[in-house]
Amino acid sequence: SSSSSLVLLVTVVIVVVVVIVVVVVVVVVVVVVFRIIEVVVVIVVVVVVVVVVVVVVVVIVVVVLVVVVVAVIVVLVVVVVIVVVVIVVEVVVVVVAAAAVVVVVIVVIVVVVVVVVVAVVVVVVLVVVVIAVILIIVVVVASVVAVVVVVVVVVVVVVVVVVVASAVALV
User: Fold this and answer.
1) What is the pLDDT of residues 102-114, one digit of tens each?
2) How far is CA 156 from the centre of its chain?
3) Is the CB of residue 113 less than 8 Å from the CB of residue 64?
4) pTM of the predicted model, to two decimals?
5) 1: which DSSP letter?
6) Neighbouring C-beta atoms of residue 11, cutoff 10 Å
7) Which residues fall within 8 angstroms of residue 107, CB to CB, at 6 or more apart?
């Protein structure tokens, strides 16, 4: 009788431990899956933000370049009119001066536009990357903490079950 009750007690303890282990594994898998989904969502959001920012920057650059081209055409028209008016007096001097002014204006405008666009793109990309890294670190730390808490709870439950089972067996 004592032997059969001990076998029954051991069987009950084994069944309880197996059930607890299965529950823990399922909880850990669910937590990890949700954390992976969160990371994927964060990465998708970051990619969408980067794409939107790049598209906006490209549109701004195109608009600025169109304005620059129109301004250059206007400047060239004005220069041509001045050259035609003054051509009798100083053809060579006016042409050289006008060409130099137009070239300097074009170079300055293009350099300013390129510097501004590159600076905006670099700052936006750096901010997006920093935010993505911080979010991923937070998600990973949260996952690790969740797994540790689950493991501690399982260990405590198993110890309590074993102690109670031992006490019952001794009685």
Assistant:
1) 888 898 888 888 8
2) 39
3) yes
4) 0.43
5) -
6) 10
7) none
